[in-house]
Amino acid sequence: MNRLNHIVTPLVLLAGLVAVAGCGTKTKQASREETAPGVVPAPTAQLTASPALVSANDQVQLSWRTTNANTVSIDDIGDVPSSGVKTVTPTASTTYHLVAKGYGGTAEATARVTVNGPPAVMVPNSTMSAEEEFKANVQDIFFDYDSYDIRGDAQATLSRDASYLVSHPEVKILIGGYCDERGSNEYNLALGQNRADATKNALVTAGVAANRIRTVSYGKEKPFCSESTEECWQQNRRGGFTPEQ
Amino acid sequence: MKAYSRYFPHLLIVLATLATLPITAQDWIHAGTNLGNERIRLAVADFKPVGDDPQTPALKAAFDATLFNDLANAGIFDLVSKSMAPPAMPGSPREIDLAQWSAEPANATMVAFGALSVTNGRLAVYGWLFDTHNTVNPQVLGKQYNEAASQDMARTVAHRFADEIILRLGGGINGIAETKIYFVSSRSGIKEIWAMDYDGQNQHQITHLGTISLSPRISPDNTRIAFASLGHDGWAIRMYSLELNRLVSFPAGTSKDLNQSPAWSGDGARIAFSSSRSGDPEIWVADASGANLRRLTNFAGPDVAPTWNPRTNAQLAWVSGRTGLPQIYTMDQDGSNVQRLTDGGYAISPSWSPNGQFLTFSWNRKYGPGAPGGQDIYVMDIASKRWLQLTHDAGSNDFPSWAPDGRHIVFERAINGRNQIWTMLADGTEQHQLTQTGNNYMPNWSWK
Description:
The complex is a heterodimer. By secondary structure, chain A is of the alpha+beta class.
């Protein structure tokens, strides 16, 4: 019993000295760990993040190496092996902090990742309703008079709409076909149906499952405005989207 | 000189044709629609009240006004105005002095007169039509009526008597005084199907579906109305029974697509309509029960608004956007023999005349962004494709529908966002507004 005491107490005192001494001397101590007889070597730790400069949702690889440590942990990740690699996707600039603890003391390491630009996907927050989010992401398209062809600007809108719908497979939609006030109710109901169907076909071609989409024609029965001007007429010549349950 | 003299007869013919052109346009319409180029000068006397029942004055007023109106609007009479008529109320053949009526200023060829009385809640009317120049045997018609005493029956009796006169003097074609017009009105807050008498009286709501309903078409036997209605899954052809006062089924008309603009064949056996169930709006036909459904057209672009040739029931006209702006076409009942009738502009809403000779439709011959065109009602002779414009510089006009006498057309007119139903003669004269309340659309004249 006495012999052990002689060994342990100095070790504890030494560990205490090392702990108080701080980080700066750690690497030196790592290379000299065999030189002090009877002294428990202190842990060492290294942490790198690559790449260090990214855009939101890009992947970053953390890698670390430690020695003489019994437990190693990284903030917000938890306990990790003494050496390892992990992929993270930070949404904002982050400093990763590693702590390695052993008989010889504690070692720490940090690595910083800087994230550029706004988030790639709109982060839902409590001020935007589901309907508003739908309207912002699935926008209506407009047609030329007496036409149900998808024009260039409509094609661009439909591409964005399709992207959102493909990445949100739980969303179902109703496409309404609308016409301006000129001409007969009957002919405009048919033209509205052709507009709704053309819009649906474009989305299906872009990868949206057909059974998520319903079409209906409103002809000129449900106008968005009532002035007899070219601006209002254009507003009414549309394929309009609404979410369905 | 020799060369010119050779062409002189041709030049004369051309000049003669040009000189008569304005008259020619009206002539072929009048001939084809039995409007007649000469009108019969008819005098209508106020009927003599008999007895002192307190209901008599009001019912007589309704009767006199209705009879005068029916005959004035018939399109075949030159009616003697009240101010030109002698101030006499002959109540029977013994009381009439024919010389009064044939002399100036009345100058009448025919005179209608009679007596009206109310006794114990019964209305009795005696009416005669006399030829003023035949003093030996003047009677052309002698009629008596006995009905319950009410405003409605006073008008109905007047309608019946007017129709008798029109039938007798108008070349054997039935008068329209007892026909009805079915239409769409949004005055209840949403577009529903309504009905009224041919003169705008008795406007009343038929459907109460609470959803948008369009294009009412009454069956030839007056028992059912086919129409288009917006349901949860799309537009369906619905059927309303006037006998049962409720919807009845029409299996062919229901699907999750667009089904609209129904049209009855003249024998009531078949219904044509537009349906998008094959992926594009096309013309389909089914039996009136909904059986034997088959497709008639197969062209890209909207195909809508069919109408049958009611005399042969073997041809249809309809609207197609296959070349761009909508045009009017005809085809045989099996879909063959497609003929294009209009040569441009924006042409819609055809209605085939009862004698099979004419189409009336709505046409904007100068359509497009910035173009000065107006939408007007036209009549076209199908064989020659000759046409006549009936409305001019008065709103935007659509949905013409022939009356069964072939002499009248009812249509929809929109002015500054207000839509009303108007009636006119088939030559475009005598345009009268029938509705006032709310907005009213898409009229359809009954077959009898």
